[in-house]
Amino acid sequence: MRHQVTDQWDEEMWLQAEPVYEEAFPEHGRKNRGIIVKMFERGLCALHVWYIQAAPVAMALTGMDSKENLLVIDYIAVSRRERGKGLGLACLEDLKRWAKSRNCRGIVIEAEADPSEENAKRIAFWKKAGYTATDYVHTYIWVPETYKAMYVSLDANSPIKPDDNGINVFKSILRYHEKAYRNKK
Q1: What angle do CA 163, 159, 101 make, to 5 degrees?
Q2: Which end of the chain is more exposed for a tag (fewer CB within 10 A), N or C?
């Protein structure tokens, strides 16, 4: 599987990733194209696409919380037809290597916290990949789901250290989203 990354808007690469993105995330749960383009224009994100031969099979949109030096996984998805083959774990290993090459201390992601079978499976996947869940559950005002942060440390000399409930880890995600939705350059 080949991993390609860009931190510049690449129309062709986005058009390859977009079907995987739209298949995995409902419209209310994804950023629209205009917001994503602006994020690239402002240097806030990177697009990762994984290919088997020439076919895109997975994608991720990531950004940085420069205050804590953490990579934030905004979205990650494997094509429905390729799920269950270990590709998701392989993609996360690629993201770890990529983040380490940029001297990131760790990686954070928000996982849906509502108790459901589907969310439990997602959290089990992240735990299998080495991520730890925080206790803090965040409620956004614009989406009905609640979320918790999950993280993996990449630097033994400067590991991610959650406070009592992990709100400090979730703040990395909030800082990233705030920049993404801000209209200023």
Answers
A1: 135
A2: C
Q: Coil, helix or strand for 57?
A: strand
Mean pLDDT of all residues in the chain?
92
**91, 41 contact by CB (below 8 A):** no
Tell me the pLDDT tens digit for each residue of 6-31: 999 999 999 999 999 999 988 888 88
Q: At what angle do helices 167-181 and 33-41 cross, to 10 degrees?
A: 100
C-alpha triplet 26, 14, 51: angle, nearest 5°:
95
Between CA 10 and CA 18 the distance in angstroms is: 12
> What is the Cα gyration radius of the chain?
16
For 61-120, the pLDDT digits (tens) are: 999 998 999 999 999 999 999 999 999 999 999 999 999 999 999 999 999 888 889 888
The sheet that has 146-153: what strands, in order across it?
2-6, 45-52, 55-65, 70-78, 106-112, 146-153, 132-139
pTM for the full model? 0.92
